[in-house]
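step: validate -> pass
step: tokenize input -> pass
step: predict -> running
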Amino acid sequence: MLKCRDLTKLIASDEIEDLGFMKRVEIQFHLFMCKHCRQYMGQIRSIGQGAKKMAAEAEPDQEQLQRLEKDICGKIRNGDHGSN
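step: predict -> pass
step: emit ->
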């Protein structure tokens, strides 16, 4: 069985897309069984969504960056990973 430590490294490195079918099945099974890894994956997705939102802005100012950082950190702390 895949260990949490190994899965979190894969999630953070974006190497999941390059893995074979059976390894991806193993990852999905681990995520099904492990709420902590599901939460971590949700946090990484929240950060990615925030980064995409920031990149879409023409030239974000410092105030926008601080609000975005506060929003992301709040969602991570509260376990709100969003589904949008």
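step: describe -> The chain has one domain: 4-78.
step: cleanup -> pass
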